[in-house]
Design goal:
Helix content is 33%, strand content 35%. It has 6 helices and 6 strands, in the order ααββααββαββα. It has a 6-stranded antiparallel β-sheet with strand order 1-2-4-5-6-3. The longest helix has 13 residues. The mean pLDDT is 89.
Amino acid sequence: MRRGIRWLLWLWNFWPPFFGAGIRLTAIRQDLMGLEIHLKSRFWTRNPMGTQFGGSIFAMTDPFFVGIFRLHLDRDILVWDKAANIRFKSPSRAQLRAVFQITPDELIKVHQEMLVKDQLDWTKTIEVTDLSGKVVAVVDKTIAFRRKREFAKNGSN
């Protein structure tokens, strides 16, 4: 494993909001286009019914597409989470998993559109599953891309 990837794993896994919530970055692709997140099943990650807390499930899907895009796009493009929608499908007491991945075609499309636009919204759906593959939640993430100069001019997104 490359040294930079090990550093990224360490940084994410000991970031206090994730460390305390039992959220772990368990794998990063060598090309930095995908990663895998796990939510451990601990007493502090469960709700009063003993199943995984919805807020923790939602938190495990929060910043990862932003991180992937930040690693690959020009520095003059701002990238952040704009919106998310979660649909809970099945309660679970098990460890949960989410895989975040962008394809080279998706990256190229965003990059090309940002060459001619000052802003862009991109949406992708992620499934949160238990380790057997049963879907626990489905999350639609909308990522906002803005040119820094456009953001500075308007003072908003």
